[in-house]
């Protein structure tokens, strides 16, 4: 392995960490819901799978799709996060009602898709630069799984400190991250 390959791998690992940080940030908010450890493990794996599939699709389509599509995908992802965060925030005021968003089934798939949008955009640009596809996919997946678990577990602990207000804080984090995704 020459120095250019090593530099490329280090750069890709840093990119994987940066892209996994959105999963970490959003997982902090989600972790403030009442989640069991088994659910936390499943959420981490599903987000990891999406962080592997989305850049792979992006890499495959990188030669075909223009940069404009990536901007629209980020806007859509930001809107979805904002909506989920707002719903979580306002549901904290209604004790007896069940949340519309649950991190299971379709809700989990939608959530994982939303936090993986930027991986798709990164995959588009990596597809243009002919990066090492297998390494990219593995790095993105592993990093996002680990950071998602970390965020969920920290959020779970913080929930105990904040009690009933944890949903307000969690919803605010998700909505804020959605706004940051759209405008930041």
UniProtKB/TrEMBL annotation:
Keywords: Cell membrane, Ion transport, Manganese, Membrane, Transmembrane, Transmembrane helix, Transport
Mode of membrane association: Multi-pass membrane protein
Domain of life, source organism: Bacteria
Main subcellular localisation: membrane
Subcellular location: Cell membrane
Any matching Pfam family: Mntp
Coiled-coil residue windows: none
Transmembrane segments: 12-30, 42-66, 72-93, 105-128, 134-153, 165-183
InterPro entries, sorted: Mntp/YtaF, Put_MntP
PANTHER family in the cross-refs: MANGANESE EFFLUX PUMP MNTP-RELATED (PTHR35529:SF1)
Known function: Probably functions as a manganese efflux pump.
Family membership noted in the UniProt record: Belongs to the MntP (TC 9.B.29) family.
Protein name (database record): Putative manganese efflux pump MntP
Species per Swiss-Prot/TrEMBL record: Aciduricibacillus chroicocephali
Gene this chain is encoded by: mntP
């Amino acid at each position: 392995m020459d120095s250019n390959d090593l530099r490329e791998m280090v750069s890709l690992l840093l990119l994987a960490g940066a892209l996994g940080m959105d999963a970490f940030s959003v997982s902090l908010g989600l972790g403030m819901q009442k989640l069991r450890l088994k659910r936390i493990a499943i959420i981490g794996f599903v987000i990891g799978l999406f962080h592997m599939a989305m850049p792979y699709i992006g890499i495959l389509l990188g030669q075909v799709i223009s940069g404009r599509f990536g901007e629209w995908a980020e806007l859509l992802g930001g809107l979805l996060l904002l909506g989920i965060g707002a719903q979580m925030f306002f549901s904290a005021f209604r004790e007896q009602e069940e949340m519309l968003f649950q991190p299971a089934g379709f809700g989990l798939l939608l959530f994982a898709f939303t936090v993986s949008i930027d991986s798709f955009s990164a995959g588009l640009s990596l597809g243009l630069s002919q990066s090492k596809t297998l390494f990219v996919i593995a790095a993105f997946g592993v990093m996002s799984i680990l950071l998602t678990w970390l965020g969920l577990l920290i959020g779970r602990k913080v929930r105990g400190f904040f009690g009933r207000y944890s949903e307000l804080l969690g919803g605010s984090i998700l909505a804020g991250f959605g706004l940051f995704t759209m405008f930041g």
